[in-house]
Amino acid sequence: MRRITTSLRQCSRLTTETFPSSYSPPPNPFITSAATTIHAFPSFEPKSVTNYPSTHLLLPLRKDILHRAVIYEGDNARQGTASTKWRSEVHGSGRKIRPQKGTGSARLGDKKSPMLRGGGVAFGPKPRDFGTNLPAKLYDLAWRTALSYRYAKGELIVVEGEAELEGIAEDHLSTYLKDVLQHNKMGHANGRTMFLTCRRNEGLFEALKGEKMGREAIAKDVSHVDVKNLLELGRLVVEQRALDLILTQHESDLSPDQRLRKWRERTTL
Question: Where are the stretches annotated Disordered (predicted)?
Answer without folding.
Answer: 89-124
